[in-house]
Amino acid sequence: MKVVVNADKCEGHGKCEKAAPAVFKLGDDDVSRVLVDDVPESQRGQVDAAIRLCPRQAIAWERP
Ligand code: SF4
């Protein structure tokens, strides 16, 4: 499954990176980047946590 960050909403708090460090990484511009195309099953709980913790609701699963 694919996860996306809305760069217009992201304010660089970094909670996503803390919750799922293998999936999100803050860039130099303080916008979170998604590191993987397809989130492995083992990481999905961490991504769900990142979605819940993001204060800007900037993260979402991409539904096909
Ligand atoms: S938690 Fe949300 S606002 Fe903060 S860096 Fe991650 S995507 Fe951006």
Structure, briefly:
The protein is of the alpha+beta class and 64 residues long. It contains two helices and four strands. It has a single domain, classed as Alpha-Beta Plaits.
Give a description of the structure.
The chain has helices at 15-19, 44-53; strands at 2-5, 24-26, 32-34, 59-62. The mean pLDDT is 97. It is of the alpha+beta class. Strand 2 and strand 3 (32-34) form a beta hairpin. The strands form 2 sheets. It has a two-stranded antiparallel sheet. The chain has one domain: 2-Layer Sandwich (Alpha-Beta Plaits), CATH 3.30.70. The site of iron/sulfur cluster has 14 residues, from helix 1.
Lay out the secondary structure.
Blueprint: E1 2-5, H1 15-19, E2 24-26, E3 32-34, H2 44-53, E4 59-62
Radius of gyration: 10 Å
CATH topology: Alpha-Beta Plaits
Unreliable sequence segments? none
Q: How confident is the prediction overall: mean pLDDT? A: 97
- Secondary-structure class: alpha+beta
Looking at the overall shape, the CATH architecture is: 2-Layer Sandwich
Distance between the termini: 9 Å
Order of strands, widest sheet: 1-4
Strand content: 15-25%
| Helicity level | 10-25%
Largest sheet, if any?
2 strands, antiparallel
The count of strands amounts to 4
Number of domains: 1
| Element string (H = helix, E = strand) | EHEEHE
What top-tier CATH class fits best?
Answer: Alpha Beta
